[in-house]
Fold this protein.
Amino acid sequence: MSQEKLPVTQAIRALRAARVPFTDHSYVWEAHGGTALSSRALGVDEHLVIKTLVMEDEGRRPLIVLMHGDRDVSTRNLARRLGVKKISPCSPAVAGRHSGYLVGGTSPFGTRKTMPVYVERSILDLERIFINGGRRGYLVAIAPRVLVEVLAAQAVDVAV
């Protein structure tokens, strides 16, 4: 952790309210750098950096998918799992309206709207994960069980 003053975002407020232990990790954010950039900057395996993806079904109902940084989501398998016809990523503007965060700084904690959260099952087997803290260039390290305990995340197998 650097000596800079780290932000108090909606995500951090939500983690503190839930009494979740976490550590702060900041890095220099770059557009389109993604989890490859953050994992290099923090010196951790990209598999441990978790993407927060805001998606929607064919009825435009939003949902959050949490996925390993080095994997992608099979929207077809997710739609099948959820019993809907189609799942697709939201545009950055729509994702921002649902989450209250800028793309690249989206956290599943402290979102503007309450949305169902789905987490790739293998994430829950990790000892520690790095997930966005609600600002570009800012991750927090937490135990993955927090995703289930605080967000009621449902485990799915949709990685490709």
Notes: The chain has five helices and eight strands. The chain has one domain: 10-156. The domain at 10-156 is CATH 3.90.960.10 (YbaK protein). The mean pLDDT is 94.
